[in-house]
Amino acid sequence: MMLKTNTVVLNELIEKSKRAFLALPGITKVGLYGSTNTGKADNYSDLDLEVISNKPKASTMGLKSTLEKIGHSYVILPISITSTERIYTVVWKNNPFYQKMDLRLLFESPYSLTKGLLSYDERFRKFHSFFIGVIRYIKYRKRKMHWSAYKFYKASIEMWLELQTGGIGLNNYISLDKSNPAYSTKWIYPKGYVEMDKYLLDIAKYVLRDHPHDMEFGQRVIKFMRVELRV
User: What is the pTM of this model?
Assistant: First the structure.
């Protein structure tokens, strides 16, 4: 059986998402932004979807069932909630992690900040953000855009330290770690991308061990990293 390429999966996801959202009442536009809109999408591109509604209540109340028509989700992470927009990152169980969805739901008129919100446990935010950052890191490593990958690598270390220390930033942590500064700085300045892969995998294991909020998702991301980067 021929396996589908990620670009085929992405195109199928785009069409399925358009149909699902256009079935909602009040939707005036469903469009793309980012690489999927410019024709520069590749095997590692995610789906950037913009949905405009003139019936905010109907659109938000039907959002969960709409996403379920597109696929089963590991994570639906709220990024921005305002009176005129709702932005979520959705990571799917039944699609490659690369093809996560960045959903931007825009309202033509203001709507309540508290109504129609998808259920989310805020205690998981840093955990989910960390592992979504790992997925983004893998994407840029596969594209051989190592400087961009390093930015996500460093951001992942920041999130790990925040989880471990309750909010101490990276630079402050290094300055406070008088006992073994070489140990601290080795994470910041890896000797090439192979070492960077190894360190991030180690950190991901630490995060999962110490903060097992969503064990299945964390384990799947770690397995995904091992397979994609052969680490």
Answer: 0.91
